[in-house]
Amino acid sequence: MTATPLTRGSEEYLSWLEVERGRSRLTITSYRRDLGQYESTLATAGLEPAAAAPEQVEGYLAHLRTSGRSPASVARATSVVRGLHRFLLDEGLAAADPTTDLTVGRVPLRLPKALSEEEVSALLGAVVGDGAAERRDRALMEVLYGTGARISEVVGLDQADLSAGDGLVRLYGKGSKERLVPLGRYAAAALDGWLSPLGRGSVEPRQWRRRGDAEAVFLNLRGSRLSRQGAYAVVKRYAVAVHLGDRVSPHVLRHSCATHMLARGADIRVVQELLGHVSIATTQLYTKVSPEHLRAAYEAAHPRSSRDPGRAVPATYEGP
Fold this sequence. Notes:
Blueprint (H helix, E strand, L loop, with lengths): L7 H12 L5 H19 L10 H12 L5 H20 L26 H9 L6 H16 L3 H5 L6 E2 L4 E5 L5 E5 L2 H10 L33 H14 L8 H14 L4 H8 L4 H7 L4 H11 L19
Antiparallel strand pairs: 1-2, 2-3
Helix pairs in contact: 1-2, 2-4, 3-4, 6-8, 6-10, 10-11, 11-12
């Protein structure tokens, strides 16, 4: 059955959730149903989401609460509507967010589960071959994992963003905020292979279709800038090949990068800078510390840890 088309803003929001945030197809189907009901309600008043006012949003949610929907279902629908309006505002598709002052119950944050280092190695090792597509796919996934970048940041890279010789790459995050992050040896080597005559050079068209494609780091095989959907499809194809298809998305690679760095002792503020988070609270939620790492850090640092029960507190300790 063909999915009911939504307004352009809602379709772009669902695409962003799937590609950028790694939401599953089942989740996207549920969100599409919620948005379809929301848009149908607004349509009775001759409105689209971009023109909705707080009273329309509150009226819709009040209807959900009195129509026999479960609290979890209402919470999900509320979260979807709020997320849509924030997205429309951020993307310049609406002048205001009517949900700004909306009071709702807290919806638990669901984070993707990080892959193990062995699983990441298997995924990256699944790219076999030396053709243009394989060179691009290898570089794409190495950069995603090596930098912890968002998929939109990676497909938005221009060649001028690659700093020659210093191992840094310039990324543009939310709100066009710029940051420099290390590229890493494996990612740099893979990029060199792609940005060669046998890689990117072999798919460059004689005439560029769109302004900006000529500067793009990642191209599709038709010679246009690789889209978020195209990059997502690349990652999923290799994930399926190593039997990780239901667990892997570009966002999972970002989460895995941060988790592995923390597990190996990286300072959380370094990870915050790498990911481009404004608040360290976001990084703390995003990068759950494993119990093993937590225990190791505790035993290495706490004066009364279990590593040496007989060890006395140093004489220089004076208490609080």
